[in-house]
Amino acid sequence: MLANGIVRVNLHKMFCLFAIGLLILAPNAIAQQNGAKPPAVSPMSPMPANAHPSFEVATIKPANPNETSGNFQIGGHRIFIENETVDSLISAAYAVHPKQIVDEPAWLGTAKFDIEGQADLAGVPNLQQIQEMLQGLLRDRFGLKFHRDKRDLSIYAIKVAKGGPKMTRSPETSYGLPSQTGHGHGGQIERKFTNNSMSDFALGMQTYLDRPVVDETGLAGRYDFTLKWSPDNLPVSEPDAAPGIFTAVQEQLGLKLEATKGPADVLVIDHVERPSPN
């Protein structure tokens, strides 16, 4: 949470959150978590869950070519996107790995844009509502048209390892949305998965891997488990550091990530153009 009630997240990592139903918390929701009473009336209240917002106004400009990092910020019903490619926007809007976007022009992954706009409804949109807004923006300002298909891609297939799964079944009385929460410490990542199907888990793992992840476990139902690993590209300061993600998945969950080629859902780009003038 930044000053003035602005929430910042990484756009590249948003696509997995869309699919598992997490919300960006407004200040009053955070206050409730901390045991404080939220204000009776707040301009930062959540947008009604059944609302279908769109961008009332949106300014799109080429990003500063000297900028190296991207940001996604939310302040009330205003949204600020900085230094992001159209590939990233599509990934977030439709909850797909960038490699599931095919037949696109090369500039989709190289040209970066700054976008500033506001919703046509009051309140802080949840992630599904942001997704809906991005879909409309891509359609109206970038002329995006696509169709869905399956293609053989380089993927990671999640399979059951020898010895079987080591995860706990979620209680039969658990009807909540799946959640994936966690933190990094000492160069390690620890994530808690609650009420997750294997498809939910596969989608979440795409955030940390360089190719789409497909569930081939054959496991039905939902599970609760924790996964702790050390990313290959980060230095680890803990003496008893967790293993890399591939070893961690096998040792801790009784599953395995197998690099292979196989059919995966894709978005086939039929038409897209550089954004219309503001």
From TrEMBL:
<keyword id="KW-0732">Signal</keyword>
<dbReference type="Pfam" id="PF12543">
    <property type="entry name" value="DUF3738"/>
</dbReference>
<protein>
    <recommendedName>
        <fullName>TIGR03435 family protein</fullName>
    </recommendedName>
</protein>
<feature type="compositionally biased region" description="Polar residues">
    <location>
        <begin position="170"/>
        <end position="182"/>
    </location>
</feature>
<feature type="region of interest" description="Disordered">
    <location>
        <begin position="167"/>
        <end position="187"/>
    </location>
</feature>
<dbReference type="InterPro" id="IPR017801">
    <property type="entry name" value="DUF3738"/>
</dbReference>
<feature type="signal peptide">
    <location>
        <begin position="1"/>
        <end position="31"/>
    </location>
</feature>
